[in-house]
Design goal:
Layout (H helix, E strand, L loop, with lengths): L7 H8 L4 E5 L6 H9 L6 E4 L3 H6 L3 H7 L5 E4 L7 H12 L5 E5 L3 H7 L7 E5 L5 H4 L5 H7 L3 H4 L4 H17 L10 H13 L3 E2 L2 H8 L3 H13 L3 E4 L15 E4 L2 H7 L5 H5 L4 H16 L4 E6 L5 E8 L2 E7 L9 H10 L3 E5 L6 E4 L2 E4 L1 H10 L1
Parallel strand pairs: 1-4, 1-5, 2-3, 3-4, 11-12, 12-14
Antiparallel strand pairs: 6-8, 7-8, 9-10, 10-11, 13-14
């Protein structure tokens, strides 16, 4: 069963307008599956997986090989394993002078991918694929499953909660014991402990000194480890929203683990029943909403608002010239706090949305609505 992804229409548009298209994202989020589905629309396409020795061998004479298929779309999966291809690709796309020459996929860090593709400046467009979000899977799975298992395809579609948990355990272990070892001075044990601490601090502002003291490492080392998780799409920084209200604002970013299922695994939560009784439910709901916003509004400037006087709101978005506030409440009967109301008074947004796990939302006032995740997607589409 193929599940349509939100970025598909953007990718089709990119094929018609750019010579090189890159799909990035974390390991196992479905990049190869999506690429193979899209390639069916292109007659005679060529697909290379550089984790296969046989496909690597084909590129011993890369210029000859590519030139043979110059009129076709060439897809190269795990291209970061052969970064010396990028200057050649630049030369070839300049010579061929048409859109849709190469589709490249990579799960290496986004920093490494961007460094490797510097020679393709002006010729490449990046499209990020995240794990599944609710609007993509709502006709196939329950919201409770997405909250506890997360959006990585093999985790969400597993035959049982136990199999899903085992997959996430293997996924984290592989990252720690294989993928991250390429980084100089990296310690798998330290990263695992830090990641578990982040699960308990999910959605909170990060104190590098406090984390470093608990782990026995320096603050710069903590930041370097967090940056590695962010660069591999496994955590998300949300910066403080800068306003001209004159209020004293916090300056540290909030950090979220980028997938609810990974958070649940790191907290040893094995199913939705256990999640319902866990204090992490609220921040995991925030995390799910944030993932939705990142996919549906990739160009939005997303921050959070918090003042020294207690005014706060989960997300403040600048989008198409308007300010929107979003507060996430993991409740069927959500209400705003005094700090939420203070934020609305401070910022005077175009609209405030309370996103809750309800089947149908309601209008609380002219500028305040309670909405479900489904309704949030529809609203974003109409903005």
């Amino acid at each position: 069963m193929f599940i349509e992804r939100q970025i598909t229409s953007g990718l089709i548009h990119a094929f018609n307008n750019h010579p090189v298209i890159a799909i990035t994202g974390p390991r196992q989020c479905g990049k190869s599956t999506l690429a193979k589905h899209l390639l069916q629309k292109f007659s005679g396409h060529v697909y290379l997986d550089l984790e296969r020795p046989s496909d690597l061998q084909k590129l011993e004479q890369a210029e000859w090989f590519f030139s043979t298929y110059r009129d076709r779309l060439i897809c190269i999966d795990e291209i970061h394993r052969k970064p010396e291809l990028f200057p050649l690709i630049r030369s070839l796309v300049d010579e061929w002078n048409r859109p849709g020459c190469f589709l490249i996929l990579g799960s290496a860090s986004r920093d490494l991918m961007h460094q490797s593709t510097e020679s393709l400046a002006g010729r490449i467009i990046y499209k990020r694929l995240a794990p599944f979000i609710w609007s993509e899977v709502r006709h196939h799975f329950h919201l409770e499953g997405l909250l506890s298992r997360g959006g990585f395809p093999r985790s969400l579609t597993a035959s049982s909660d136990e199999v899903s948990y085992e997959w996430r355990e293997s996924f984290v272990t592989t990252l720690l014991e294989r993928d991250f070892l390429q980084w100089k001075g990296f310690s798998p044990l330290t990263m695992r402990r830090l990641w578990q601490m982040l699960a308990h601090l999910n959605g909170q502002m990060i104190n590098y000194s406090s984390l470093g003291g608990a782990l026995g490492i320096t603050s710069p080392t903590v930041k370097a480890y967090l940056d590695l998780l962010a660069a591999t799409y496994l955590v998300e920084y949300v910066p403080p929203f800068l306003s001209n209200t004159g209020k004293r604002l916090v300056k540290s970013p909030k950090v979220y683990i980028a997938d609810p299922g990974i958070t649940s695994f790191l907290l040893n939560i094995r199913n939705f029943n256990e999640l319902m009784g866990h204090p992490a439910l609220g921040t995991i709901w925030e995390q799910l909403v944030l993932s939705h916003l990142k996919v549906w509004m990739p160009s939005a400037d997303i921050g959070f608002y918090r003042t020294g006087n207690g005014a706060e709101v989960d997300f403040a978005l600048n989008y198409k010239g308007h300010l929107y506030l979003i507060e996430c409440k993991a409740s069927k009967s959500p209400t705003l706090t005094r700090g939420n109301h203070s934020s609305i008074e401070d910022l005077k947004p175009s609209k405030t949305f309370i996103v809750a796990p309800v089947e149908a939302g309601w209008k609380a006032s002219d500028h305040l609505e309670v909405v479900s995740l489904d309704e949030l997607s529809e609203i974003i589409s109409s903005l």
